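User: Second chain of the day. Same drill as before.
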Amino acid sequence: MDISLQTAILGAFMGSLVPALSMVYARTQAPSQTALGWWAVGFSLHAAGLGGLLIRHAAGVGPAVHAADSLHVAGAVLVLSGAVVFLGRELRGWWVSGGFVVALIWPEAAGWLGTLHGNGDLPVFGLGGVPFLAAAWVLLADRRYWGRAAAMVFALWGIHAFAAPFLHIRPALAPWSFVAGQMLAVATAIVLLIVVLRRQRAVVEQETARADRTQIRFRDAIESLSEAFVLWDENDRLVLCNTPFRRLFADPFIHIRPGLEFATLMREIARLGYVPVPPERLEGWIERRLWDHRNTRHGIEVAYSNGKWLLSSERVARDGYVVGILTDITLLKTREKEIKSKSNQLDGILNNMPQGLAVFDSDFRLVAHNDRTRTLFDIPESLFQPGTSYESLLRHLVTSGRFGDDRTGNIDGFIRKRVAAMRRSGPRMGERTLANGTVIEILRHGMPDGGVIATFTDVTERKRAELELREAKEAAERANRAKAAFLASVSHELRTPLNAILGFSEVMLTELFGPMGNEHYVAYARDIFDSGSHLHNLINDILDMSKAEAGRIDLDEQALDLGKVMAAAARMVSKRAANARISLAFDLSPDLPRLFADERRMRQILLNLLSNAVKFTDDGGIISASAALNDDGEIVMTVADSGIGIHEADLEKAMEPFSQVDSGLDRKYEGTGLGLPLTKALVELHGGALRLDSTLGVGTTVTVTFPRERTVVEIPRTTE
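Assistant: Same format as last time:
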């Protein structure tokens, strides 16, 4: 079958035009595949060359044959560039530029070859095989099936281009050469489209898989949230949510599903009583909730009927979708309520405190206070607010005259001094007398952050009581001094006649000037002498007690042998003890050191203790006295009896001057009640201590302890 050359060229032109248009269309469908653009331009240049050749053969005029050769080579270069780009390799600009230069030079060589084979009306096409074979080599790197098919087609097209000079010199084969070119062009276009589409599908599959993985990760992420997550589309229909969101509305009458309208969900939770909304206010509540859903930029706290609180935070995305996060804040609200309750309790406590309280921060600005502080200093409520500086408060108190003294001449200096005092660390106490006479005790403590907490106590009544107490004390002291002076004066006046009574009665007892003749007179004289002696001792005790209370007893101290002093005191009471059949026992440590004390006062101490023991011990009783050195180097003296004892509740009373445990007029044991108090005063005058231990019906033990400083330690002498 013979085919005309013109028909073959027309077929080749159409064969090249179809791939060009196919590549252009494919490029619009797959914008990411830039190789399609290169191929579209390459096939278009080849089709343009064939179109010019077709016009020249059909009309006898047209572009030169050399243009078809040049466009063929340029198109082949662009097809090769598309193959390089398709495989993701680097496309160097000088390759493309060099190919275009060769395409411009090639027609001269092609014209010379055309004259050689005697057919200058047809293009040579030989050099175009080089880019096609190079494209085949590049596509062989794509080891997939369709990549190799494309490489094979390009290789055939390259072989055809190399064979074209030999086919075009034969008129019978030239038309078939163009037909073969048409078929190769169409086959190449089909294979390339298949390759690109498969590549695009692989990319789509990869992107789909990546999107699926991203969506899975996104779902896993929102499922891992402890908060409820929900996504609404631009029409407020549910897109997706996580399990915590479904649990919030786990009700059989609420079906949480994609496509659920936000308004429908709000209406259902209100109808089912999730939120306390009256039926007549339902629609208004839904409208307000819809507005908040789309317009609110801050979280909304929603109280549910079951006591649960949710914080709803919703944000509108640029595409109109709404992202919502619902956080369970029930525990937070409960704690807020507890904190508010405790804060109210604290405010109540602070405002009902009798003391004023003010707290200042490190910049000495008011942080907190109670009402008592403001009323104490009569500060206006508008000024006494958090944030007010200590300097401003102080200036108001000074200028208003509340401080009670005139500081108008140097207000700034006074304020600087007070502010400097506030900066000192450590607790500080002071007093301030206000203009109205109120005395305020001020106690300031520093806080770890540099602030200060101050308390203000109204001590006006306490100061008044202290003044009255001080005046009463001074009056009592004056009365005591007057009493002592009176007792001294009376005692002195009594001693003169008393000495005469004692002297005359003693003369009568001894019958110095002859016998009285009647024994009754002798008995009367003895009674007069005993009564006078008793009164004389009483006066001496009263004077000693007065001197002790006034601190006017002078001690004549020396190193004493305590054993001799105790023996002397025992001799003075031994007769009375023998008359009452009372046993006296003494226990002195053999190595007892000397005691630095007043001998007469020590004898008086021992005599008082032994006399008391004899007086309050029944017939046949036992009295023991001892002295020893304890582990602390103190001399301890003890007098114990088996007498009547004292009730524990009366021990303190027994130590009071002129006090009697048995104070009735018909009491069994006579006395002034000065023995123990005077003894205690004399012991304390020596720096010692007296302790009274007694059990009613068992006996009494008196322990006298002298300080270590009064123990005389003798240093042994050494002989050389």
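The two ends are 165 Å apart (CA to CA).

User: Great, on to the next one.
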